[in-house]
Amino acid sequence: MMRALILGGTADASSLAAEVARARIDAVYSYAGRTHVPADQPLPTRIGGFGGVSGLAGYIRDERITHVIDATHPFAAEMSRNAVEACADTGTSLLALERAPWGSMSGDNWIEVADISAAAAALPEAPANVFLAIGRQHITPFAMKPQHAYTLRFVDPQEAALPFAADVIVSRGPFTLHSELEMLRAREIAWIVARNSGGDGARAKVDAARMLGLPVVMISRPTLPERRRVESVAEVMEWLGHSTRLGA
Ligand code: 3Y8
Ligand code: NAP
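A: This is the predicted complex of the input protein with 3Y8.
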């Protein structure tokens, strides 16, 4: 009897949950619990870590999960690694739903770096207005360049003290080209730091940067273990034996 676990937390995961619910597949949606009020899902939802690989393997056994879909964000590397191990340990089918990275196009001025520390090192020495579009969890490396006027964007209001002076915008995506252009112009942003998230939910700032001729320090994705992956909800549904082709 099929029972699916969706490791969620992205717009693609929400789209998948809607199709899975429509197909009446027995499934559970999972959030890490990073945000105060995550978006509602049309499936039974669990919130919080599993407790590492063994915790996830135990969950899979206890809940009789037969299929795991890793629809987490491309930078949720630890969750993805744990899913590969736990599914191998329990002999459970695993499929990743992972959108393609953004590619730079003519007019883009990207400085591609491997990680957050390299992103901080890539910023200039001369003070500038810098927009850090990388959330809340991994901003400490920028404390090494306190000379910049930083703008941060969080999903929830700031709780802990910041490691450097910064102005915080509280807003969850997805963001529009118009609102990103307005924000960048109003704050006279000269540099943007972003993760190569892919997808549409956060692409607007990259397009706005190109239109304004701004440099973007683009953080490349972490390498993930080999696993079967698709880029569309339709392919996941086919894998689950529920084609979403019209009239199917
Ligand atoms: C809790 C679920 C939807 C989903 C929205 C997508 C788009 C906006 C791009 C910017 C970049 C950032 C951040 C971002 C994106 C979507 C999508 C995506 C980047 C929610 C969500 C959860 C999270 C967790 C949160 C992180 C943070 C990262 C903000 C919900 C809204 C910056 C990633 O305060 C915290 O601890 C936040 C932590 C992980 C990265 C960080 O290090 O701070 N996402 N984001 C998920 C869970 O608990 O399991 O609250 O409803 C989901 C979305 N985030 O339905 O439209 O699909 O990718 N999320 C980055 O660097 O790209 C925003 O501001 O331009
Ligand atoms: P991470 O660093 O890869 O994972 C750290 C730990 O968080 C995991 O080992 C697991 O804890 C728990 N976890 C992560 N995702 C989970 C999920 N969907 N359900 C249950 N537990 C989860 O994760 P992250 O980068 O902080 O991302 C956390 C969540 O935010 C994910 O749902 C991800 O899709 C979403 N998100 C992340 C980003 C980003 O930039 N990283 C962007 C957008 C959305 P245990 O080991 O205890 O099981």
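The radius of gyration is 19 Å. The pocket of NAP (ligand 2) is lined by residues 7-10, 30-32, 34, 49-52, 55-56, 72-73, 75-79, 82, 195 (CB under 6 Å).
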